Amino acid sequence: TETQAQYERRVKQMRDAKNVEDYMIKTSIAKGLKQGLEKGLEEGLAKGLEKGLEEGLAKGLEKGRAEGEAKARIELAQSMLADGLDAAFVSKHAHMPLEEVLSLQMPYGKPDGEPHDASKTCL
Asked: Residue 105's pLDDT is what?
């Protein structure tokens, strides 16, 4: 049979083995969580950046297109006004509010609203 000292030595060995096992499990879990978190953050940032760039590009292109169309409408309206066309006609055909057309009319018309003589307009 075992002596008391042998028994206590075996119990200590078993406790030590259990403590080592517990420590290894805890450090492995912590290491795995850290690696998983780092990988998840890396992938999340990559996906977020990609999506952000796509959305930013789409919004930028849409904004540029809209600004280009607005500029083209203004240039068309200015040209029509310079040719002496009526502001209401320009508004309708340039697809612009009458107030906006009227605000463009001043450089091409007289202060009383009369258009310039189109034959005297330099282009």
From this structure: 78
